Amino acid sequence: MPATIQLEITETALLQENESTLDEPSRLKSLGLRLAMDDFGTGYSSLSNLRNYPFDMIKIDGSFVAGMSHSVENHSIVKALINLGHGLSMRVTAEGVETLEQLNLLLADGCSELQGFHMSHPLPANELHALLSTARLSDKVKQ
Question: Which CATH number goes with the domain that contains 121?
């Protein structure tokens, strides 16, 4: 059961390095929980955080995704973060995917997972179940 739980930790939570800050992520990981670094690339990003903490995933902040369609610089940052995550054997989630163009760019760049309004707005559990059932049915029809 713990492996199905993923905790998201923002980089700013790691800024005050003290004994508990350094030990707590490792303790949580030893319980079988998965850890994601949320909003990666914003604030005081430090690559040493990826080396010093046992993260399973990085989540690219939506501000980079929002600008990648019209900014070569933002798109370059997103591609670099995807490659960095994969090079460290981490899953990579792009947050804030709102357009088909962003979706296509991220898929072409090899992003592992996508999150945002383009796929769905947040839903109550019963509506999510209906959405997933419809998606499974539509996949069967396509085959």
Answer: 3.20.20.450
Separation between Cα atoms, residue 105 and residue 109, nearest integer Å: 6
Tokens of 34: 């998965």
DSSP calls for 94-106: E----SHHHHHHH
Confidence (pLDDT) at 18: 63
95 has catalytic annotation: yes
| Structural domain count of the chain | 1
Distance CA 60, CA 96 (A): 9
* pLDDT per position as a tens digit, 27-66: 888 888 899 988 887 766 667 778 778 899 999 999 999 9
Predicted TM-score (pTM) of this structure: 0.80
Catalytic residue among 24, 95, 98, 101: 95
**φ and ψ of 39, to 5 deg:** 60, 35
